[in-house]
Specification:
The protein contains 22 helices and no strands. It has helices spanning about 5-15, 25-30, 35-40, 45-75, 75-95, 95-105, 115-120, 130-135, 145-165, 170-175, 180-190, 195-200, 200-220, 225-235, 245-250, 255, 265-285, 295-310, 310-325, 345-350, 355-380, 380-395.
Length: about 400
């Protein structure tokens, strides 16, 4: 058993459940060795995870180095962008466990992004090449590059989920088919009319929604019990949040919580169902304020952003389920959580299947929660970021041409 074999096994074992349980005991069981045998190679779990990070950075750099050099040299920036997307989607399409590691340890900023970039650069690949290629043709606002990469991550996550990649290794043909769709979405978004998007009076729509939210908060206060659940999840994550933590916040005994919830799973399920219902209800009321499709889409996106910004504990809790698996059971039949955007009269959504329309709605919500959590962590300006998000969703990079 070599160090490399241990590292590769750790990617598989811990990645299967999205690093919810990254114990050395589970790794030793997979390798059919004792924990002391692992300690002969790595003095601690921290040493092993550090080695995993270094392995990931080198493996990724080795895979994309030539492609990134070609992308930087390409005369056409769009060709360069396609080369980059193809290289990254190819690597993560072939390596589902590397994608999971990226999502849970890097994308969620458990590992400092600057440090990761420096490590990858030490292996011969400067990730800033992506920004340089985009800036040759497009205005690179702070969130533009982030949205392109988030779109790539989202599509790869959907690919691996539908392909059940942890059980069935994707074929080369399946992996090759990923990049064109990611490229088209990044370039064109939903393909709406630039003239209509540019004619929207954003300030007017935002002012209306601000007034509506103030009324909603006044007339629909947060239930203390669900607020306590949300705060516990935001603090510890859904797997480590306990009924004891909720009870302590409420000044109750754990046994008294069983009068409200059957168990922890029921507690989390009811929290998310309640919040999704509140969000969708508020968004649908906001959408109804206009008959114009482009305005309706912005009203829906901005209203969710405003709602979640007013409930930071819910935003953090939802970010946990943005990239990880959380089994809360089957959703209620009539919840229609992801039909918010499907029902809008957007031509590009009406031409595809119901499953594809649902995926587009998922993509919009994924980007929205992604941007909101990034804004909270980095202190980015609120309104400009949502407007840039909307422009990317509707027009892709085409909305940022120089």
């Amino acid at each position: 058993m070599t160090k490399t074999e241990i590292i590769q096994a750790a990617f598989r074992v811990w990645g299967r459940d999205f690093y919810k349980n990254s114990s050395l005991s589970s790794l030793a069981k997979e390798l059919k060795v004792s924990k002391p045998a692992l300690y002969r190679h790595f003095l601690s779990k921290e040493a092993l995870t550090s080695a995993m990070t270094e392995y990931f950075c080198k493996d990724l750099a080795d895979s994309i180095r030539i492609d990134f050099e070609q992308a930087m040299a390409a005369a056409d920036p769009d060709e360069g962008l396609y080369i980059i997307i193809k290289a990254l989607s190819g690597y993560f399409g072939r390596n589902v466990y590397s994608l999971v590691f990226n999502l849970t340890n890097i994308y969620e900023k458990k590992i400092d992004g600057k440090t990761i970039s420096e490590r990858i650069k030490s292996h011969g690949v400067d990730m800033e090449i992506i920004r340089h290629v985009i800036e040759k043709k497009y205005d690179s606002y702070p969130c533009t590059l982030h949205l392109v990469l988030a779109t790539l991550i989202f599509n790869l996550s959907v690919f691996h989920k539908t392909s059940n990649s942890m059980e069935n290794t994707p074929t080369a043909e399946q992996v090759d088919a990923i990049s064109p769709a990611i490229y088209e979405t990044s370039k064109k978004g939903l393909g709406l009319s630039p003239d209509k998007i540019d004619s929207i009076d954003y300030e007017k729509l935002e002012a209306i929604l601000k007034d509506k939210l103030e009324i909603k908060i006044k007339n629909d206060p947060v239930e203390p019990l669900f607020k306590a659940v949300a705060e516990a999840v935001a603090e510890a994550g859904p797997w480590k949040a306990t009924m004891e933590m909720v009870a302590k916040r409420m000044g109750l005994s754990k046994s008294s919580l069983y009068g409200h919830f059957k168990n922890k799973k029921d507690m989390l399920r009811r929290l998310f169902i309640k919040e999704f219902k509140s969000i969708i209800d508020f968004a649908r009321q906001s959408i109804s304020l206009s008959q114009d499709t482009e305005q309706q889409l912005y009203l829906g996106i901005y209203s969710i952003a405003v709602y979640l910004r007013s409930r930071p504990e819910i935003l953090i809790a939802m970010d946990w389920i943005r990239t990880r698996k959380l089994d809360l059971g089957k959703p209620e039949k009539n919840m229609e959580i992801f039909r918010l955007f499907e029902d809008l009269n957007i031509e590009s959504m009406q031409k595809v299947s119901q499953e594809e329309r649902q995926q587009i709605s998922h993509w919009i919500l994924f980007l929205l929660i992604n941007v909101l959590t990034r804004m909270e962590k980095e202190g980015a300006e609120y309104t400009p970021s949502i407007r840039h998000l909307y422009k990317f969703i509707t027009l892709g990079l085409g909305g940022f041409k120089k």
